[in-house]
Amino acid sequence: MNWKFWQKKKEINHQSVARKWIGEIAFAVIAATLIRWTTVEAYVVPTSSMENTILVGDYLFVSKFHYGTRTTTTPLQVPLTHQKIWGTNIPSYLPWIELPSYRLPGISEIKRGDVIVFNLPPIEMNENIDYPVQLKTNYVKRCVGTAGDRLEIKDRQIIVNGEPLNNPTTMRFSYLVSAKDEIHHRNLTKLGLDKEDFFYLGRTIDNQALYKMLLTNEQAEEMKSIPYILSISDDYTTHDGPEENIFPLSKGKEWNGDNYGPIVLPKKGMTVAINDSTLQFYGETIKRYEHLDNVELKGNQLIIDGKAVSEYTFKQGYYFMMGDNRHNSLDSRYWGFVPEDHIVGKPLFIWLSLDSEADLLHKLRWSRMFTMIQ
């Protein structure tokens, strides 16, 4: 029996409850922002440039502290956003204050062979916007050259400082494949190929079905034993003469994605004489990424603060990044060096992987869950 029925029920203070909820939400946002900035951040992979190491639909946890956390350059920014406010085209930041960025001490240095998340150095061409460094588009590639390295590519083999670089087993190259008839989608799926891994080129004069396929060595060997495959050969078009859009954009070079260099990556403290040759390699890099206020490139002259200089000493180191899917990757071969201050972090493991082309029962790639990135 309730003997206190005569007591007045305690009234709920709605303002107090609202303040409590606001405080808890604000604390959660601040905590999540700090974790995302200093420790780890989740990313999803939208392109196939790192297949088969990383697949489209892989969700990665990326460590910020391995190479050192960067301080923010845009303090006036909506928390937990990148370039735009979610679901809109409204910029997520105000450019009224832009601070210099500093990198806190990390627990490791960048090594050749590391898979790295970084901010894409060039201007966003589709929007013609030069975002602050930390708001540029995030890319994930493999570091194949570190600051000070002499790098070249000969017949698809990367050579650094005179030594061949170890190739990842998951690396893909382009092949020309002819078959008796068009290959059923089901058979392509069994081979581990999705819609971005093959291109139907049409019929040959012998009425064979011709494909361009991006394959690992293992996949290429497996296809040779399939009865309906007539031939599989090197895609000669990938190294048939110079590529117009290769870095650096200079006339007369016979470079392409398979035969490239040699080129020396700038290192902090490295001094180069300024002439037509060095400006060809380093001019735009100095102008864009060395944080100089007044820089001009005029012919074979580098003009800083109105004065032509005869030599230049780099203020930071630069890296060379390439995708493991070598013939389906826009990387340093095409847009140049990655400055040290553009490095975001080191991918640790895949915590979720979704196949957008699979049916509902097979959409989740269970075998990739919590696998380490190598």
Give the gist of this structure.
Helix content is 15%, strand content 28%. The protein is of the alpha+beta class and 374 residues long. The strands form 5 sheets. Strands 1, 2, 3, 4, 18, 19, 20 and 21 form an 8-stranded antiparallel beta sheet that branches.
What does the model show?
By secondary structure, the protein is an alpha+beta fold. It folds into two domains: 14-258 and 319-374, Umud Fragment, subunit A (Ribbon); 271-313, no CATH class. The chain has five helices and 21 strands. It has helices spanning 14-38, 185-190, 217-224, 276-289, 332-335, and strands at 40-44, 58-63, 115-119, 138-145, 150-154, 157-160, 163-164, 173-179, 198-203, 209-215, 229-234, 260-264, 271-273, 295-298, 301-304, 307-309, 311-313, 318-322, 338-339, 343-353, 371-372. Strands 1, 2, 3, 4, 18, 19, 20 and 21 form an eight-stranded antiparallel sheet that branches. Strands 7-6-5-12 form a four-stranded antiparallel sheet, with no helix packed on it. The chain is globular and about 70 Å long. It starts with 13 loop residues before the first helix and ends with a strand. The model has no long low-confidence stretch (mean pLDDT 89).
